[in-house]
Amino acid sequence: MISPALTPSLSGGAAPYSTAYDTEDTAVGAITIHETVDATVETVFAYVDDYRNTTKYMVGLTKWKPTTDVTHGKGAKFEVAMKAGPATLGSIVDISLWSENKAIGWHSVEGFKQKGQWAFRRAGDGTDVTFTMEYELPGGIAGRMLSRAADPVVRSNLQRSVKQLKQHTEKLKPARPTKTTAKPAAKAAAKRGTGGRAAKR
Question: What angle do CA 91, 33, 64 make, to 5 degrees?
Fold first, then answer.
C-alpha cells in the first residue's frame, strides 16, 4: 500500500509526496510503501541485508556492488545503478542505519541523490515492512525533461520492488509440518502382529 498524500521524512519531519518540480533546478520526490509479508521478521531482514539479493527484487536496479570489504551493516558502501526510463542513475550509497531485524537505511554520498530506509516490524508470524525513499532528479532544461520521464518510472519500479520482496521472502519461509497418519493396511498389519505375539506368550 502506498501513502501518496504525505510521506514521513527520514530526518524525522514530514515531506510532501510530489511529482512536481520543487525548484527550478531539481525535481524532488518522496515515496512510502507499506506491505505485510507472510514470513518471519528474521527471514525478511536477512534477505534484505544480503546485498547479493538486492538486484533480484529491486526492479530497475542493475548494480548494488560493495566498494569495500564491508558488505553489510553500518558503514558498508555500495556502487548503485538504477534504470529510470531512458536514463541510468548512478550513485555511491553509504549504509547509515543498521539495526538487526528492525531497520536498514542508506544515503548517497556521490551521484544520484537519494536517501532510503527499510523498516521491519513483527506482526504475529509475519512482518510489516515499510519502504521509504527521498530522491532528487537532475535539474536544468535537459534535466527537467529527463526527470519528467524518469520520475513515474522510479515510482512504479519501487512499488513493484516491494511486491517482489514479498514474493521472494514468502517462498523462503519454512514449510509448516504436516501430520502424517499410518495407512489402514499398515495399521491392520501392526495390529495382527501385536495380537500374534500376545497369543504366543
Answer: 25
The answer to whether 16 and 134 are in contact (CB under 8 A) is no
Give Cα 159 distance to the centre of its chain.
10
Return the closest-CA partner of residue 27 out of 193, 145, 127, 110.
145
How would you classify residue 157: left for phi > 0, otherwise alpha for psi between -120 and 50, otherwise beta? alpha
Give all domains of the chain, ordered by start, each with its CATH number. Answer: 6-200 (3.30.530.20)
C-alpha dist (Å) from residue 172 to 24, 74, 99, 201:
46, 25, 22, 53
pTM of the model: 0.72
- Our CA angle for 154, 5, 149, nearest 5°, is 25
Q: Can you tell me which residue has the cell 501430520? A: 179
**In this predicted model, what pLDDT tens digit does every residue of 174-198 receive, in sequence order?**
655 445 444 555 555 555 555 545 4
